[in-house]
Design brief:
The complex is a heterodimer of chains A (162) and B (483). Chain A has 162 residues and is an alpha/beta fold. Chain A has one domain (9-159): Rossmann fold (3-Layer(aba) Sandwich), CATH 3.40.50.1450. In chain A, 30% of the residues lie in helices and 21% in strands. Chain A has four helices and five strands; from the N terminus they run βαβαββαβα. Chain A has a five-stranded mixed beta sheet. Chain A is globular, with a radius of gyration of 15 Å. Chain B is α+β, with helices and mostly antiparallel strands and 483 residues long. Chain B has two domains: 7-41 and 414-478, no CATH class; 44-408, Cytochrome-c3 Hydrogenase, chain B, CATH 1.10.645.10. Chain B has helices at residues 44-50, 58-61, 70-84, 92-124, 135-141, 143-164, 184-191, 194-214, 216-221, 288-291, 298-304, 311-323, 334-354, 405-408, 410-424, 433-444; strands at 7-12, 21-27, 33-40, 173-174, 177-178, 228-233, 245-249, 255-260, 269-272, 281-284, 294-295, 373-380, 383-391, 397-403, 463-467, 473-478. In chain B, the strands form five sheets. Chain B has a five-stranded antiparallel beta sheet with strand order 3-2-1-15-16. In chain B, a hairpin with a 2-residue loop joins strand 12 (373-380) and strand 13. Chain B starts with 6 loop residues before the first strand and ends in a 5-residue tail after the last strand. The chains are: A alpha/beta (162), B alpha+beta (483).
């Protein structure tokens, strides 16, 4: 925690903006950039990578923002919720892709390598179109993005002071 | 009479290989492997997506193609657009900035591949349980190695950040030059850790070399087949990852062509279509489709070049050539050793460039006589990357053709998979996890980039499906546990 009790927060939005709704994560970061806080840092990338674990050790909490094809994936439901927001645990997840990590992988790597265990949350925003090279979100994904933005800004406000 | 039927085993998608690929293993009635095929969806949609775009925006847009090596596409497109804007030779500052960016990209990509994707296979063995064969087990048993991998990768990313302007969607390479130089503060930040990077790179070469030497029987019997090899080389035959002429050698090291102008690549490279694959199969025209296929990437580069122009990497290349008796090394697993020699080369080049005052120069852009067509080749981490564009009088792209290194290696990866499947799956009635991983190790050595697939949450990493001769699904399974 920082000197004035504010939580140091890192938000990482990831995905490929050139693949339609896969760009929800980076677009989220773009639309939240107006928030000015020395305790809030924003990052965009195509995917999560091992060096994110290195950066993560400096923060109290992490928020991973990604497109989701199933906004309720962790509870196995198939509803049309616009987004999912839940805390993720340091569970056994060996899901290192060719050059990318899952959110679980990042926090597990952070703890295993650097002994740091920031709280971590995933914000999965429901997307629909992923198969074409196109630099725009579908209309419904954009609606879901706005809902997720509103939610997270309120949540951050409530989280600012411990 | 009851007869045995042929079977097809599908492995889909491959773990630790980006995007979605699928391997089908074709078994005869005696469960002997007849053929194995690697299926990858190619990026043809992207080429259509580029059409109509303005030439100035192409070097940025092409980075959308791939989250793994966006810098390679950025630089290849910029080089092709240099040709269109009539610039055949960049200013020293522009070329050196681009080279610095490229060395950072090749370094970080090769480091990640070796330390975090391949090291579990090499250090724990191909048959180790899937739960052990991952980066977290490496951290547990080889923590220093894992930390070095992370910090080396981070260093390469910092080089990209300072040269490309940003971590994602860098835009510094523009047609005819570069839009930023390297500030002294940026230079000093990178110089701070460079000697550490060189030391760790040498350790990485030792690990990969020692693995090869200590497991010679395995290395020689695993995806080892004769092939041609192709890469760019500098005018004097040195390794050059950014520019040069194309050189191809056959399995015995005889030259097929040398210093070929890549702007005429369609005169000596052809692409074959096969009905079962979306991805084409390139081959050297003069050798025909059966004998003309070739490998690209780190192994091919070590086989084609005459020397390396940095002293430490050159000494390691000499060792490599000694090992292969001064003939091309054809062992799939030797890719790892070759890859680490390239990391050492890149770090040496980064140091050399950081001490070059041209990087602080202000002469960044040139203009020339406008052309309608641009062709570029660079040596990306996985191999030769071709970008070919035509533009109209309104500066709009009317034609785009990309040949990525995964496509160049298509035949080789299929042969590697077949070779390994025959050795480890033939005669078995059930497919074990270890057998599957042997196939993946063979594919992974080429570090194929299949990143056209998106990475939305909720997708399973690996599904194995077994079909009978009538294509009925009779078994299914998952390679590793998650979620």
């Amino acid at each position: 925690m920082s000197a004035n009790n504010q939580l140091r927060t890192l938000i990482i939005g990831y995905g490929n903006p050139g693949r339609q709704d896969d760009g929800l994560g980076p677009e989220f970061i773009k639309q939240i950039e107006h928030i000015e806080s020395e305790h809030l840092h924003l990052q965009s990338n195509y995917q999560l990578t091992v060096e994110d674990a290195y950066d993560a050790q400096e923060y109290d909490q992490l928020i991973f923002v990604d497109a989701s094809i199933d906004a309720c994936l962790n509870v196995g439901l198939k509803t049309e919720k616009p987004f999912l927001f839940e805390q993720i645990e340091n569970i056994d997840d060996s899901g290192l892709g060719s050059h990318s990590l899952s959110p679980n992988g990042v926090i597990r790597l952070c703890e295993t390598l650097y002994g740091s265990s920031p709280k971590a949350f995933v914000l999965g925003i429901l997307g629909y179109e992923f198969d074409q090279f196109e630099e725009c979100l579908s209309a419904q994904a954009n609606t879901n993005l706005q809902a997720a933005l509103t939610f997270l800004q309120n949540w951050l406000t409530s989280q600012t002071y411990a | 009479m009851k007869t045995k039927k042929a079977r097809i085993l599908e492995i889909e998608p491959l773990t630790r290989v980006e995007g979605h690929g699928k391997v089908t293993v074709h078994l005869d009635e005696n469960n002997e492997v007849t053929e194995a095929r690697l299926h990858i969806v190619e990026f043809r949609g992207f080429e259509r997506f580029i059409q109509g775009r303005l030439l100035w925006e192409v070097p940025v847009i092409v980075q959308r193609l791939c989250g793994i090596c966006p810098v390679s596409h950025h630089l290849a497109a910029a080089k092709a657009m240099d040709m269109i804007v009539g610039v055949d030779q960049l200013t020293p500052t522009a070329e050196k900035m681009r080279r610095l960016m490229h060395y950072g990209q090749v370094m970080q990509s090769n480091v990640l591949h070796f330390f975090h994707l391949c090291s579990p296979d090499l250090l724990f063995g191909f048959s180790a349980p899937a739960k052990k064969r991952n980066i977290f087990s490496i951290i547990k048993e080889f923590p220093d190695l894992a930390k070095k991998g992370v910090l080396m990768r981070k260093y390469g990313q910092e080089v990209i950040l300072h040269t490309a302007g940003k971590k994602i969607h860098g835009n510094s390479a523009v047609p005819g030059g570069i839009n930023k130089n390297l500030q002294l503060t940026e230079r000093d930040a990178l110089l701070k850790d460079i000697d550490q990077m060189i030391a760790w790179s040498q350790e990485a070469v030792d690990i990969s070399k020692n693995y090869t030497m200590e497991h010679l029987g395995l290395v020689e019997g695993f995806g080892n087949f004769k092939s041609n090899h192709m890469s760019l080389v500098r005018e004097d035959g040195a390794l050059d990852l950014y520019d040069g002429g194309l050189r191809a050698v056959d399995a015995n090291g005889n030259l097929i062509f040398d210093h070929m102008d890549y702007r005429n690549f369609d005169q000596f490279i052809m692409e074959e279509v096969k009905p079962w694959s979306y991805m084409k199969f390139p081959f050297i025209k003069s050798r025909g489709n059966l004998d003309g296929w070739y490998r690209v990437g780190p192994l091919a580069r070590m086989n084609t070049i005459s020397f390396i122009d940095t002293p430490l990497a050159n000494a390691r290349h000499a060792e490599f050539r000694e090992f292969s008796k001064h003939k091309p090394a054809n062992m799939t697993l030797a890719y790892h050793w070759a890859r680490m020699i390239e990391v050492l080369h890149c770090v040496e080049k980064i140091k050399e460039l950081l001490h070059d005052p041209d990087l602080q120069g202000s002469d960044l852009m040139l203009k020339g006589e406008r052309r309608e067509e641009g062709i570029a080749v660079i040596e990306a981490p996985r191999g030769s990357l071709f970008h070919h564009y035509k533009v109209n009088e309104n500066d709009q792209v009317t034609y785009c053709n990309l040949i990525v290194s995964t496509t160049h290696n298509n035949t080789a990866m299929n042969l590697a998979v077949t070779d390994v499947a025959k050795k480890y799956i033939s005669g078995k009635s059930r497919i074990s996890e270890a057998m599957l991983n042997h196939i993946e190790v063979a594919v992974r050595a080429y570090d194929p980039c299949l990143s056209c697939a998106t990475h939305a949450l909720g997708q399973m990493p690996l599904v194995v499906e077994l079909f009978d001769a009538n294509n009925n699904l009779i078994d299914t399974g998952s390679q590793f546990v998650s979620k």
